[in-house]
Amino acid sequence: MVHVVQINMTFLLHSLFDATPRPGLQHIPDTKPLTFEAAVLPPIIYFLALLFLPPPPPRSIDTIAIKLLRNALALLAGILFFRLPLAYYVPQSIGLNYQLALVGLYGGCRVLDAFFISPYGFGHIPRRVRYKHISRAHTPMPVEGDNEPQSQASGKGISVPDAVSNAATHARCGSLADSYFVLEKRLSDLSKMKPVHELATSEEGWPHNFLDRASWALELETSMRGIGFTWTTADVRHTRKTWLPTATNRLHSIFLHVGPVLAVCFAIIRTTYVKYLEEAPSTKYGAHAENLFDSRLPLWLQLLLTAALGAFLMAAFSVAHSMAAILLSPLAPSPLAYFPPLYSTRIWDIKSVRGFWSYGWHRLFARLFLVYGVWPGEWLERKLTGKKNDEPADVGKVLGGFISSAFVHSFAVRSVLGGEWSRALGEAKFFAANGFAVVLEEGIRRQVLTWRKKRDLPLQMWYDSYIGRIWWITVLLFSGRNFARGWVNAGLVREMAGK
């Protein structure tokens, strides 16, 4: 047994440090395997620069020398972030190369925003935001008496491991199908989130001493959605009437909601690859030599694979978010332990393309798209139409956000398509199509409302929601084929299928 463990550990270490590209990986020519130093230096230098970003006290921060040092560190961090996907690749994984490109581009853009665009362009340095949650009245759904764990009935809390252990013990008593429903029943209380009103208050100043500055810098660097700061993105600000997830609630979501979705999507992705794509001719690097998505998949299977990839990504983001929240929950009440829900509405409640991207999808890159897409788009629309600064520029706002998203995702998939922009345009087409779909549906919605008002008809009809659901699902599936095509040709679907 010990010998087997040693062999497995040796194989694992060899795999981690083996510089041989995995089969199917099409990295950018002339790039080299990622080194430890190249991976850790950008975030470390970014953190050091953030230590000097807040204004004084102490007064020593407010000197020309310190500001030059801060900006020099920020420029170096930004350059190193941007350089990551252009100079390096991860030989062990296609997916990690895709992530490396996202991290490099996002990190570099975030540094430019934090140290140059926001302070010098808008005079803004993010302030901390303190959250306070007040319980609110909520009418729960009826629950059967035997659904409640005994420890709660006696007035005592139940830990996550105990809850899972108790549920699993009862689940083993029946068949596989029965066991799932027993597990669902026994863990049903774990799914209940605490209904609260969320109050957010911005701090008046910035951190003063070194430890507080270090905490401020770490919180800002790790907060993609700006949570805990005045950079907070719209998905967190949609409503103050919300629910507070707990560690047990997130555990329930992973095991009984997200887990089955991942399993079904994995089965679809693997079956599709093995049955239709695996036997296709490949080059010496293991990459397939033809456009497999169009040549080997019928339309119905293209749509099914597109849906499976989209659902898999949503579920994977949810699992990662929930696991991070569970692992960091002991740090509460530190802002590092605060993880508001990643998605702010159920998928079946969405009735438009705009609703999907505003409420149904995560907003992890929202700040990036705001600074580099939405604001430039609004500025361009006002210049072209002569609108004043206080007038809405919704078309530029929408198209700017989606075009910036198109570039970011095309840049990422380019890193696993041999650096060829011409093969990486699928994701750009997907986001551009969705941007125009949002503009189109808003125009149609306004025309329909005007038409109904003139005829004294109800503004909302019973069939509106059905038409809206059919519309947004159709748009995402058919435009999403561009996204899926790039993932198939890049080998990402192959890796997701475990091949």
Automatic annotation (TrEMBL):
Tell me the ranges covered by the Wax synthase domain, including all copies: 344-421
A GO molecular function annotation here is: O-acyltransferase activity
Q: Where in the cell is it found?
A: Membrane
State the similarity comment: Belongs to the wax synthase family.
Question: What species was this sequence derived from?
Answer: Aureobasidium subglaciale (strain EXF-2481) (Aureobasidium pullulans var. subglaciale)
The protein's topology relative to the membrane is: Multi-pass membrane protein
Q: Does the keyword NAD apply?
A: no
Any idea which UniProt keywords this protein has?
Membrane, Transferase, Transmembrane, Transmembrane helix
Q: Tell me, which GO biological process terms does this entry list? A: lipid metabolic process
Which pathway does UniProt place it in?
A: Secondary metabolite biosynthesis
Membrane-traversing stretches: 34-53, 73-90, 96-122, 254-273, 299-320
- According to UniProt, the name of this protein is Wax synthase domain-containing protein
The source's superkingdom equals Eukaryota
**Does the UniProt entry include the keyword Coiled coil?**
no
A cellular component term (GO) from this record? membrane
User: One Pfam family for this entry, by name?
Assistant: MBOAT_2
